[in-house]
Amino acid sequence: MQGTYRNNSPFRNLTAMSDPQAQNPFPLTQDTSADHAHINDDKAYWTQRTRVIQTLLEEKGFFTAAEVRREIEREDTITPMLGARLVARAWVDAQFKARLLADGKAACQEMDIDTVEINRLEVVENTPSVHHVVVCTLCSCYPRAILGYHPPSWYKSTAYRHRVVVDPRGVLGEEFGTMLPDDIEVRVMDSTADTRYLVIPVRPAGTDGWDEAALIPLVTRDSMIGVSFAEIPDNATKCNKIS
Amino acid sequence: MKEVPPKNYHQPIPHDLTDTTPLNTHDHPISFFEKQITSLHNLMRAKKQLPSFDAVRRAAEEIDGRFTARNFSADIPEFLKNRLPEYGERRILAVETVLCELGYLTREELRQGVAGSAPDAPEPIVQDDYAPEIDTETYGEPRYHTGDLVQVIDQPKPGHIRTPVYLFGKKGKIANLQGLFANPEDLAHFKSKVVHLPLYLVEFDMVEVWGEQCPKKRSLKDKLRVEIYEPWLIPL
Questions:
Q1: Which of A45, A68, A122, B84 has the most Cβ atoms closer than 10 angstroms to its Cβ?
Q2: What pLDDT score was predicted for residue B46?
Q3: What is the pLDDT of residues A198-217, one digit of tens each?
Q4: How far A51 CA lies from chain B's nearest CA (Å)?
Q5: Could you give the ipTM of this predicted complex?
Q6: Rounded to two decimals, what is the model's pTM?
Q7: Does one domain contain both A151 and A177?
Q8: Any chain B CB within 8 A of the CB of A119?
C-alpha cells in the first residue's frame, strides 16, 4: 500500500487554533523587552535579515503580516501553565493520570490543549524509585505546544546536551540543586525522534487534600523537564509563579 | 521537488563527552527576530508549504559543517566568520536554505533584500509541493519486541541522521515499540520515496554507553532511553 506524504502527513491538520486563549486563560506572559541581560551586537543585522524573509514571503502571497503577528501572539500564549494544568489534574485524578500516561495527546485534547504539532507525546511519571529527565542531544526537541515555543536557553545549550546524558546526577545536583537519592534509578530521555516527553513530578508532601487549582502553582517548567522537583508548598506561597 | 543529496561538508551533531562547561541556568530573553523566524517557519508548515522540521535540521547541520571547515557561502556576513552562529541565527540560515531549495525564495532576492533595495524580483518559479511516495512495504512487521537485546550499528551514514553518534556500537534493550513513522532521514533530504519505519524506545545502561567516562559508582542503576529507527539496530 502506498500513498503520498500529503495524505499520510501528520501535519495534515496543522492549523493555528482559532482562539488560542481558550486553552490558556492565564498565559503568564512576561514582558522581557526591557531586559537586556543578553545583548547581541549583531541583533540589528538579524532583525533586518528576518524582516526580508517575511517581506518576500508576504509579497509572494504565502501569508500576510497580520497572520505572522497573530502567530507570534499565539505562540506567546503557550506557557508551562498548560503542562502545570495537566500535572495538577493527574495528581488529583488517578483515572486521568492513567489516560495521560497511556496516550498523552488524547488526554491533552480532553483538557483543550492543542498538540497537533506533536507526533507522539509520552508522559512519564517520576516516583520515589524512578526519576526521568529530558534532553534532546541532536537539537532542541521539546514539548513546545505544552511548555512553550522557546525552550530555556540552557536546554538548548551544548553544555546541557553533552553533560546530562553522561552524568545526570551531577548536572542536576551541581547546576539545579536537585539532589537525587542514591537508590533512585535515573532515566535520561533523549528525544531524538518523533516522541516529545513531559515529566509528571512527584507530588510534594504536605499537599494532601489540596485541590487542582491550588496545586497548579507548584508545578514548574523545570520540574516538567525533570531537572528539578515540584515546588514545596512553603516556597510556592512565597514565589507563587511558574518559573 | 528535487532530492537534496548529502553534502560533503554535512556535519552530524557531535557529542563531546568531556564537556564540563557550566550551565547558565538564568534564561536569556528571546529576541524578537527569533520569535519571528519561529513563527514564519510554523506558518509555512501550517500552510503545508514546509513538510516537516527535518529539512531545516539537515540544513542547520550543513551550516555547522561549513563553519567547521570555514567554507563559507556568500550569504554568511563577515562578522559571523569569527564565531559560530547562535541558536536563533542558525535557525534563520537554515530556514533560508530550505525556502530556497523549495523554490519559494532565491538567494538573489534575499541578497537584494539584505542590501536594502526595493524587492523587484521576477515571479519565482514555485516548484511542486514536496509530496513523496510513502513506502509502507519495506518495513511491514516490526522486527523487535519489548525485551529484545539489540546493538546500534557502528557505521556513519552520510547526511542527516537521527541516531546520536554516542550510541554507535552500543548494546541496549528494546523498552517499547513507539509506532511507525515516516523516516526523518528521508524527509530531511526531500527523498521522492520515504520509508515508513518501526521506531523503538531502546534502553541503555549508562555504564555500557560511557564506560569509565561516567561516574561509575553513582551511575550503576541509571539508564538512557533513546528512540532508534529499526534500520539502525541489529539483533544480539
A1: A122
A2: 86
A3: 999 999 999 999 999 999 99
A4: 8
A5: 0.92
A6: 0.87
A7: yes
A8: yes
